[in-house]
Amino acid sequence: MIYIVIAIVTFLALILYGAMSRRRVYKEIDRLEAWKMQIMNRPLTEEISKVKGMAMIGETEEKFEMWRQEWDEMVTTQLPNLEEDLFDAEEYTDKYRFKKAKSILAGVSQSLEKIDMRIKEITSEINELVTSEELNREEIVEAKDKLQETKKYYLTHIRALGQTAPIFDKELDEIKALFETFESLTVQGSHLEARQRLVESLNRISDCKTKMQGVPELLVILQSDIPNSLKELSAGFTEMEQQGYVLHHIGIEKEISSLKHLNEQALNKVLELELESAQKDMDETVQKMDQLYEMLENEVHSKQFVISEREVFFSTIQDLHDRIENLKQETQIVSSTYLIEQNEAEMQKKIEKLFHKLQSRFLIIEDSIDEKRESYSVIREMMEEMQKQMEELQRSQKVYEEMLHNLRKDELETKQSLRELRKKLLEARRMVQKSNLPGLPEHYLITIGKAEEYIIEVSKKLDEKPLEMSDVSYVLNKAHEAVNEGYEETSKMIENAFLAEKLIQYGNRFRSSYQSVSVRLIEAEIAFRNYQYEDALEIAASAIESVRPGILKEMEINLKSHV
């Protein structure tokens, strides 16, 4: 039973596969048939007939016959053969020989592709031929006018063209010969080749006219302007040397010889109508001449700078010398009182060393000017570099002067700070005296004692010779911390004592009613008499807060409102 079912299913599958394959092949046959009909309906005959309006000779007649024969071959032989192939493919399909049918259809598709492509090529060739003939008729008149105009321009400017005139004359004759060839080809019906000659003629006319317009200016520049400029450059160089300029670094003779050669090279290219290359050589020549002129101008400006700044430099060197001498004297005075840091002492030595270096450099510069050992541009560079070094030295001098000034300034500020610390410590003592406390706790006395010791140590440091400000600053910072701590502890101690006393007095009203309160208040009184005001406050507050919550906060607010 299972085998029967499998056989039935397989049979049905084969039938379904055959039906679907036939449908796909028939669909491809229909597509190729439609493509074939489309090709047959192409209006190629009409396109070919366009050529009939032209003179049927030479190339035109040959191409017309070739295109007509190709189209006849397609219509009468190739396409009918493809039609038969399609019938064969259909028969193979009916017989379920799909592989053979597909092979035939693939061949038909390739053939139709080739035919279609060739029809497009023929159409393009026809259009090119027809268009060429039309354009030739339209443009030949314009081309002849341009040639005539160019000849007229040539005759008008023949003298300005110089040695290039025969080349242009020959070029115009060759263009004229191209026109004659064009006419001959047109008469022969070779419109495409005639088109090539006409386009070539137009391009050569345009190129010839452009070169004619460019040559005169190039000749004037290369034959007159540049040679005259080179003579002026050489004369100017000689004159500047006679005026005392040192110019050996420029090597003017070698440079001018090189420029003459480059100019001659550019001129030869012009005479061969290689104008673009000649223009590049000419531009290079002009650029290099400009550079030489700039170098000479730079020497003139550099001389003006050197002469005008020489006295300024001398004055600046003298001023630096005077300031360094003053710094040395001031350093000796300050060092007798202050201990100058090693790196700060080294700064003075560096300043003096740099100054002596600048002094030597200035002597070299003066010698170079007087003995004419260097060009002014080189001397100017030396002076500009020296100017930067002088400015750096001036900045270093200013920093060192400020350092010396700050040493004395730090001493005065330290003494002022010391007075303020003593005043603050005295104010703390007065606060204690006014508070009428029964006594002072041991830790408080230690804090105040430490503050007094630091103040004394600062005073001693200020009396030391030489004065080491870094040590003074360190001890002064410690004194600030100790005094501030003592002052804050004084305020806190007095506040705690006052609140503790008030709480104990306030709590007396609860002694008879609350035995625990009475006991805690006795503990608070003992702590108070032992100068433990903070402990007394904590004990009294905890006792009374148990029966009268918030009383401590209330008293603190009242205390601050009366301060």
Fold and architecture overview:
It is a single chain. The chain is an all-alpha fold. 87% of the residues lie in helices and 0% in strands. It contains 16 helices and no strands. It has helices spanning 2-40, 44-49, 58-94, 98-156, 158-161, 165-187, 191-242, 252-271, 275-335, 342-371, 376-435, 442-463, 469-507, 515-529, 533-545, 551-562. Helix 3 packs antiparallel against helix 4 and helix 4 packs across helix 7. The longest helix has 61 residues, at 275-335. It is flat. The termini are far apart.
Fold topology:
Elements: H1 2-40, H2 44-49, H3 58-94, H4 98-156, H5 158-161, H6 165-187, H7 191-242, H8 252-271, H9 275-335, H10 342-371, H11 376-435, H12 442-463, H13 469-507, H14 515-529, H15 533-545, H16 551-562
Helix pairs in contact: 1-3, 1-4, 3-4, 4-6, 4-7, 6-7, 7-8, 7-9, 8-9, 9-10, 9-11, 10-11, 11-12, 11-13, 12-13, 13-14, 13-15, 14-15
